[in-house]
Amino acid sequence: MADRTAESNSTRDRILAAAQGVFAEHGLKGATVGAIASAAQVNRALLYYYFESKEDIYRCLINEGAEAFRSVLGEVPGGEVPIRDRLHCLVRSYLRFCLTDRPLARIIRHDLLGGDVGRALLEAPFTEIAETLSQILVEGVRQGELRPMDERLAAYSLLGMMNVLHDVVLLKGVPPDLESATDHTLELFLRGAASG
Fold first, then answer.
1. Nearest CA among 118, 134, 100 for reference residue 61
2. What are phi and psi of 77, to 5 degrees?
């Protein structure tokens, strides 16, 4: 019985992994059940045993993406950790997710920017990340580590910087060194581009 369950999970996971690549390349509208089944090396009947439709597969991937997005927040320390270190951890975790799980990150970016199926599922974790960033910035201002600012706007600005870096990686296909990208993004955000 345990072998059957493991085989069932393996087949389901293989379908999801294949679908991730198909959706990342073609989007929800351009993807077909046939292409997903072919990429997963299963027949359509077996795919339909696990999922009702391509939209069902897509929702499952978006749910996984939302959970992965939320996991970024779990890596951010709180308490007495300096603001800069907390920001560094959040930026690194976010970029690591975007750069290491590129097909899923591409699907998420597409849906956040105008997709229909997953937007509602993704809005909450994205907002949670922005609010966490904003809270860190509020603490930084209160503690005197950061100058006064509109913390909410600054949080969205930093997220925008990270997303543009992610978009460039998707276009160019060459991921930067994670630590260098994190340091550069955070330095540019904290210091700005001004010389003085």
1. 118
2. -70, 160
Of residues 12 and 116, the one with the higher pLDDT is 12
Mean pLDDT score of the chain, rounded to an integer?
A: 83
Q: Do residues 40 and 87 share a domain?
A: no
Q: How many domains does the chain have?
A: 2
**Same domain assignment for residues 15 and 77:** no
* 9 has a pLDDT exceeding 60: yes
Where does residue 61 rank: exposed (0-12), middle (13-18), buried (19+ CB within 10 A)? buried
- Strand, coil or helix: what is 74? helix
Q: Which helix (H) or strand (E) holds 137?
A: helix 119-142
CATH of the domain at 77: 1.10.357.10
What does the pLDDT look like over 57-83, one tens digit per residue? 988 988 887 787 777 778 888 878 899
170 found inside a domain: yes
Are 22 and 40 contacting, i.e. CB atoms less than 8 angstroms apart? Answer: no
Task: Look up the pTM and report it.
Answer: 0.75
